[in-house]
Amino acid sequence: MKIRIDGKVSDIRAVWCEEGVVRMLDQRILPHRVEVLGFRDHHRVAEAIKDMTVRGAPAIGVAAAYGMMLAANNDEDLQKAAKELKGTRPTAHDLFFAVDHMLSRIREGDDPTEAAEEYAETIVERCRLIGEHGERLIKDGDKIMTHCNAGALATVDWGTALAPIRAAWRNGKEIFVYVSETRPRLQGMKLTAFELLNEGIPHAIIPDGASGHFLREGVDMVIVGADRIAANGDFANKIGTFEKAVLAKELDVPFYTAAPLSTFDLGIKRGEDIPIEYRGEEEVTVVDGVRIAPQGCKALNPGFDVTPAKYLSGIITESGILKPEDIAKRLRGAKL
Ligand code: MRU
Asked: 45 to each of 61, 232, 293, how far by Cα in Å?
């Protein structure tokens, strides 16, 4: 992804490895400061996933793969490392997929560094392909709504929901993106708008509550990411996704999720069984260090909601655009 740092445009990834050190852009302080952190052990990588230095399902998966690499290269107990990394965030399936993938590669005798690098490259390539497939849905002049950040920051490079948008823009299509701010952590306003600005893609930030208004005013399609997709196509994504999907159906606006196959959890039959992360109430009650809610008020802060498959027009994957009812048939035996 292109990022302007001190007036200079740099091509940078959200997570990478350099001479045995795992590097991450610190997503907690974007867009105002661009800082790269370095990690030499898996405990610190686990902390970075938990405190959201790195976030977004595929990027969490890649960070965890590098965490397993560090554990192996530091001669740590791999089962313990796997448990620690898996214990950081409960919803994004990529985390569990990546750790299990690394355990099996290391068990087979593969070099941990090579395995982690290959995992990262595979995710980047899958996202590029998501862009290629999804771009065909976008017409010149389309207005597209997205939610949270499902861009390069959330996936290492390209993005999932943002990959078709990037590809359409690079292919010369005049598009416009509505970016919902995504309370309470504001990943839409802070991260998606930052990515679009850096690419020069026309966009506007909207309050989450304005989604219905703009869906009725002429949004042509909605594309969001996913944290976990169940076998029947129900999927978890950032809180606020569900209500956009219901409104989109009511207003006849096509609604897509975009995700690599590593986000599918075929072991989970329905959305109700997806574990939902609840986060601290201070994320809701405190804004920029200032308590806004009256002292004594409680807040509830689910990080994700589940959108039933019936609201989906399709799932944009690296293998093409799937209908929820085709998941079982198309993905049975596939290399996730
Ligand atoms: O809590 P976050 O910021 O990790 O949540 C991220 C999302 O919900 C994204 O939409 C999802 O992970 C898809 S990322 C390509």
From this structure: 11, 33, 33
Q: Are residues 120 and 138 in the same domain?
A: no
Residue type (1 letter), 235: F
Average pLDDT over residues 235-239: 98
pLDDT in tens, 151-204: 999 999 999 999 999 999 999 999 999 999 999 999 999 999 999 999 999 999
Query: Does the CB atom of residue 156 touch ligand 1 within 6 A?
Result: no
Q: Is 58 in the pocket of ligand 1 (CB under 6 A)?
A: yes
Per the structure, the count of domains in the chain is: 2
Question: For helices 112-135 and 93-107, what crossing angle results, to 10°?
Answer: 140
The single-letter DSSP state of residue 109 is T
Q: Is 56 in the pocket of ligand 1 (CB under 6 A)?
A: yes
Are 240 and 92 part of one and the same domain?
A: no
**303 CA from centroid of ligand 1 (Å):** 9
| Residue ending a domain, choose from 94, 125, 156 | 125
Burial class (CB in 10 A: 0-12, 13-18, 19+), 319: middle
Beta bridge partners, 223, equal: 256
CATH label of the domain that carries residue 117: 1.20.120.420
218 and 178 belong to one structural domain? yes
Structure tokens at 112: 């941990």
Q: Does residue 193 lie in a domain region? A: yes
The closest of 153, 164, 201 to 179, measured between CA atoms, is 201
271: amino acid identity, one letter: G
Burial (Cβ within 10 Å: 0-12, 13-18, ≥19) of residue 304: buried
Predicted TM-score (pTM) of the model is 0.97
Q: Is residue 227 flagged as an active site residue? A: yes
**Which pLDDT belongs to residue 333?**
67
| DSSP output for 215-264 | HHTT--EEEE--SEEETTS-EEEETTHHHHHHHHHHTT--EEEE--GGGE
CA dihedral 309, 186, 37, 49 (to 10 degrees): -40
Mutate to test the pocket of ligand 1, among 148, 160, 228, 318 (most ligand atoms within 8 A of CB): 148
